[in-house]
Target: TRAP-type C4-dicarboxylate transport system substrate-binding protein
Amino acid sequence: MTARFSLLPLTAAITIGLATLGSTAQAATEWDMPTPYGDMTFHTINIREFADEVRNATDGELDITVHANGSLIGHAEIKNAVRRGIVPIGELIMSRLANENAIFEVDSVPYLASSYADAQTLWEASREVIAEELAEQQLRLLFAVPWPPQGIYTNQAIESGDDLKNLSMRAYNTASERIAQLVGAVPTQVEVPDIPTAFSTGRVDAMITSPATGADTKAWDYLSHFNHAQLWLPKNMVIVSEKAFSRLDEATRQAVLDAAAEAETRGWEMSRQETDEALAVLKENGIEVSEPTPELAELLQEVGETMTEEWAGRAGDQGAAILEAYQAARD
Ligand code: PCA
Model:
């Protein structure tokens, strides 16, 4: 008994001694990074690779842990959590901030930029304005990567707009909500992790998203058709709190910026590849993949024009400047 009591302080002394020794080296900075999206999503794979690169480049001095699936912080809260310093860094879809400023949803206007080349040009034309807008909230934009082109999942073939009327359509931002309204469907916002339940409980019977998210959520379990309408390519962005960033030493800041630039280039490439791969997975699992019929294409073009006008009205001078730069770069 006595021996045991006398051993305890000794163990504690050794532990304290080791901790003191260790503290001569600078303690690593640990950052938690929430994302709303799942482990298997290419975006999540890409940001984990970003975290690995930062860890390697800084010899473990900056250790970023990615928390997928909205497990740490829900999508609606991620931006404010970074702004308030609850977490230093996070990923979210840019267009989720549309109600703060319409420029954040410039990448979700139907047919404004629906190929990778145009999406890239639009990003170059809008990046600075968007980064400035975030900087006003002490947020630094690190990088942005698009989802594959958005299409429409249903349980029957869509020949014309009539087939979309009154469907209860899952949406994820104001643009997907608006397009649903304009084709006569009824939009319901549902986050990706909640998609399977929303279908199995009958809350929704159609959805707007990418081949990637359809494959990730096993759309074939509850849907039969995908219309590859290629409406727009919405982007995820990674933002860091300026306060947390400025606390890093110079070399670590540079390592973050370098890894961010690489993550952006890599992510765009992953997204392109994912489009083809996910379309193949959908087909393999029995989803009928088709392009819009001429009637549907015409309707979606009209809806696109309406939404472009509505967006330009909301986005004001900043929006006009983005459109001008975009058109000039395309000509
Ligand atoms: N997947 C995400 C955003 C766009 C996409 O392709 C979603 O469906 O919410």
Residues 93, 147, 172, 192, 209-210, 212-213, 234 surround pyroglutamic acid (CB under 6 Å). Residues 29-330 form a domain with the D-Maltodextrin-Binding Protein; domain 2 fold (CATH 3.40.190.170). The chain has ten helices and eleven strands.
